[in-house]
Amino acid sequence: MKTTDRIVTSLRARPLIAILRGVPERCIAPLGVALAEGGVTNIEVTFTDHDAARKLVLLRRALPDSVCVGAGTVTKQGRLEAALEAGAEFVVTPHAVPAVNALALQSGVPVVCGAMTPTEIAQGIEQGCRFIKLFPAAPLGPAYLKALFGPYPELEVFVVGGIGRGNLEAFMRAGALGAGVGGSLTDLDWENPDYAVVTSLATDLLAMIRDPYFRRLA
Which of 2, 133, 154, 156 is catalytic? Predict the structure, then answer.
């Protein structure tokens, strides 16, 4: 079992979270393997899927220990309990949920807490969350993110919502730690999935995230 510090290190070292939503159960393991082959070490299964806990278990079994598997869209305590039982190693929320944040942190599971406004960001920080998920990031834009570092210079932000190859560079320049990427990375033709495309795109996105050229200057 990974320690909290090891999971936090994974989120910081390779800060791309691949978001799996609506993936057929038969495709979940090969998709996870394709992402891992592209260098992804953090994969989120969204708990809006009715069989999310089962998918999380299948993903965990298929992947090496170097990959962290987490639960997303955790908006209530029941979802969190199911996620923890399935082996979730980190939790992502679309907004601050005090009961979820408290129980996850008490269980040693890092939370990427969803927020849009400064008030919501402050709530996530006050509730002990190390990371903030700026959502929905694309409509808010890189300038909005950059402005947040005035009052919150130490903020560690994952931008999520409409993120892809076309706008990731701008968000990294604005100061994002990393990104959560769903549809533009993980949506395939599930009747004839081309997993090589996922591996290639994951490699490209990680290169953009990790390149110092794209990062905010200290």
Answer: 133
Is position 76 annotated as part of the catalytic site?
no
Confidence bin at 117 (pLDDT 50/70/90): very high
Q: Which of 46, 103, 101 is nearest to 73 (CA)?
A: 46
Q: Which of 2, 25, 37, 44 is labelled catalytic?
A: 44
The string of pLDDT tens digits covering residues 134-149 is 999 999 999 999 999 9
Q: What is the pLDDT of residue 210?
A: 80
What is the pLDDT at residue 2?
A: 80
Strands 178-181 and 68-72, by their bridges, are unpaired
Comparing CA positions, the residue from 159, 98, 154 lying closest to residue 126 is 98
Residue 202 DSSP SS3: helix
State the CATH architecture for 4-214. Alpha-Beta Barrel (3.20)
Going 81 to 82 to 86 to 88, the CA torsion angle's sign is negative
Q: Is the Cα torsion angle 55, 112, 33, 201 positive or negative in sign?
A: positive
pTM above 0.90, yes or no: yes
Q: Which residues contact 211 (CB under 8 A, 6 or more apart)?
A: none
